[in-house]
Amino acid sequence: MKKICFSLLLLSSFSMMRSNVLLLEGRYQNKNIYIQNGLANSGVGFCAYEVKVNGKVTTDEVNSTAFEIDLSTYKLTMGEKVTVEIYHKEDCKPKVLNPEAFKPKPSFEIGTITINTEGLLKWNTTNESGPLPYIVEQFKWNKWVYVGTVEGVGTPEKHDYLFKVTAHSGENKFRVKQVGFGGVNKTSNPVVYNCLIETPNYKVTDKTINFSSDTGFEMYDPFGNVVKKGFGNVCDVSNLGKGKYYLCYDNIVTELDKRK
Questions:
Q1: Structure confidence at residue 79 as a pLDDT band (50, 70, 90)
Q2: Which helix (H) or strand (E) holds 2?
Q3: pLDDT (tens digit, 9 = 90+) per residue, 96-154?
Q4: Residues 217, 208: contact at Cβ < 8 Å?
Q5: Vertex 42, ends 41 and 47: CA angle to 5°?
Q6: Which of 60, 130, 204, 236 is 20 to 30 Å from the Cα of 50, by its Cα?
Q7: How far is Cα 11 from Cα 222, in angstroms, rounded to an integer?
């Protein structure tokens, strides 16, 4: 009876010990994982005692104060999903020294990028290393302006994307970009599209700015703060104090003096 109780106690302790798992998930970026291990708080043995990569126990030597999880031995492809389980004792926790190793970076290659007369922006890519969003930007008001996002698939095969944009009068430029870990970004070459719609004009009243047709607009105060932003043929300025403002609409930047 004592032997049975002792065996159950050992099994219970072992199960409890294995329930402490440091889980890492991401996409393979051709980088290994480095772990700071250290001794268990009890002073007996090291903290981490087993590592699994995609469910398989590694052959890496973990009985040291620091060790490397060598992912190159698993013949992973760039951008492939990876799960790393680091089993450790209950009274301690190992530290991942390079947690950014699984963070995707913008590595896409553009095949083609086009836009048609209906404003449908299309592009295809290869060599994506992780599921980063594509940020669509339009050049107007002397800067690149955010338009929207399309989620990237994140694998190296060819992928096709599309996004509906709104053109302003005259020459339009659009591009896509991705921003990865640490703010590292990659941007496509711009695609150019000439739109034959007329440039809208506007009239100012005490309470509104009335455009002759729908347009995107932004207003800035003298300190560069955005005070109005939208799309349409009316901009409500009734809550703005008198003074000088900068009005951006269509592809035009102009000064505006609000007198009331």
A1: confident
A2: helix 2-18
A3: 999 889 888 899 999 999 999 899 999 999 999 889 999 999 999 999 999 999 999 99
A4: no
A5: 55
A6: 130
A7: 72
- What's CA 79's distance to the chain center, in Å? 15
Q: Where are the domains of the chain?
A: 20-102, 109-195, 202-258
Give CA–CA dist 83/28, Å, rounded: 10
In tens, the pLDDT along 217-248 reads 999 999 999 999 999 999 999 999 999 999 99
Distance of CA 40 to the CA centre of its chain: 37
- Which CATH entry fits the domain spanning 109-195: 2.60.40.10, 2.70.98.10, 3.40.50.1970, 3.30.1490.20? 2.60.40.10
Name the CATH topology of 202-258.
Answer: Immunoglobulin-like (2.60.40)
How far apart (Å, rounded) are the C-alpha atoms in residues 54 and 144?
Answer: 42
Report residue 129 as tokens. 């290393």
pLDDT tens, 144-203? 999 999 999 998 999 999 999 999 999 999 999 999 887 889 999 999 999 999 999 999
Q: In CATH terms, are 109-195 and 202-258 the same topology? A: yes
Report how far residue 78's alpha carbon sits from residue 81's, in angstroms, rounded to the nearest whole number: 9
